[in-house]
Amino acid sequence: MERITYNFWNIKNEHIKNAIVFFAVFVIVLLAILTSSLSVVSVNMLRFQIFNPEIENIRETATQLINTSQSWNLINEILRGLLIILFIKLINKFINKTKIRLSELGVSFDKKQPGYLILGVVIMSFMFSGALLIDVGISGFRNIMGLVFSSNELFMAVLVALANAFWQEVAFRGFLQKRLINTYGILPGILICSFLFAIIHGLVREITIPELILGTILFTFVGLLFYLTNSIWISTAIHATGNFFLRTLDTNNLHIPDQLSRLIIYGFFLIVLILVFRKKIFAARKINL
After folding, report:
1. At what angle do helices 259-276 and 113-148 cross, to 10 degrees?
2. Is the pLDDT score of 2 beyond 50?
3. Which residues contact 34 (CB under 8 A, 6 or more apart)?
4. Number of CB atoms found within 10 A of residue 152's CB
5. Cys staple from 84: which of 29, 55, 167, 245, with CB 3.0 to 4.6 Å?
6. Is residue 130's pLDDT more than 80?
7. Within the chain, how many helices (H) and strands (E) appear?
8. Quick one: pLDDT at residue 10?
């Protein structure tokens, strides 16, 4: 992997540079969310005005479609992914005066990537299932999983989860995490990125301290796998699979594994991953990108 440099504005303090990069990521995420949502709403308002002019409150109806229609939700998430990549390229060119390739963000399309995608789904399914088994036992687990996979919109729900996780992983794992690793080292850089990523979720909903700890542990695990593979697809698959289970269980008023059960499982997998790959994780202070 090629090294990404961040020698911009003649700033020598690495902490200030990292703060600027984090702020840039935060801004492009907000811009992507706002731009994609406004675009989808505008398209649907125009569509309604042409084909369904009798609809009252066209703007409100068009806005609700993002949440009520899986198809439009998917389009919205895909558009966000494209915008995130575009904004990262623009920001990187502005900050570093260089171009950034997709492969530098972990976005590759070689023959290994489908395997990484499947592996990510399997890993998260195994972890989430373990936490659910701890909570409800085998009988309860079978009943809940039977209801989850009987959904009529299962395929679309999976696609939406993947598209949603993809742009978040590109922004935080593909772009920000690599910068933090360069400065603080592999494990500290990943921990900082994971903590910041968990904090960001507090902007869209209230999060508790246990949720913050749980999110940091899970995404440290995800971040380590991304570092070891340089594949955005494995981290996207883990992220998306977890979100899919949580949203599906919540939507259908089914039991969600409690935080302690998930903390035990996620923490165990994180420790095992660190022990298995300790030589690669602790071999060097910084990553060669």
Report:
1. 160
2. no
3. none
4. 7
5. 167
6. yes
7. 11, 0
8. 60
Q: Residue 187 and residue 189: Cα distance in Å, rounded?
A: 5
| Sequence letter at residue 136 | V
String of b and e for 228-240 (b: at least 16 CB within 10 Å)? ebbbbbbbbbbbb
Predicted confidence at residue 144, as pLDDT, reads 94
Please report, in angstroms and rounded to a whole number, the separation of the first and last CA atoms in the chain. 5
Q: Are 281 and 186 in contact (CB under 8 A)?
A: yes
Render 261-278 in DSSP notation, one character per residue. HHHHHHHHHHHHHHHHTH
Locate tokens 């994971």: which residue? 194
- With vertex at residue 262, the alpha carbon angle to CA 235 and CA 276, rounded to the nearest 5 degrees, is 55
* pLDDT per position as a tens digit, 244-270: 999 999 999 999 999 999 999 999 999
Identity of residue 178: K
Per-residue DSSP letter, 176: I
User: What are 176's two structure tokens?
Assistant: 């920000």
Unique residue bearing structure tokens 């409150």: 57
Q: What is the pLDDT of residue 11?
A: 65
If one compares 70 and 5, the residue with the highest pLDDT of the two is: 70
Backbone angles phi, psi at 121, to 5 degrees: -65, -45
C-alpha 200: how far from chain center = 11
Give the separation between CA 180 and CA 80, rounded to whole angstroms. 24
CA R_g for the chain: 20
Computed from CA positions of residues 189, 190, 192, 197, in that sequence, does the dihedral angle turn out positive or negative? positive
Q: Considering the chain, what percentage of its residues have pLDDT values greater than 90?
A: 77
Contacts of 69 (CB under 8 A, 6+ apart): none
Cα–Cα distance measured from residue 127 to residue 245, given in angstroms and rounded to the nearest whole number? 11
**Cβ atoms 160, 241 nearer than 8 A:** no
Q: Is the pTM of this model over 0.85?
A: yes
Per the CB < 8 A criterion, the answer to whether 194 and 220 are in contact is yes
| Closest among 106, 267, 285 to 187, alpha carbons compared | 285
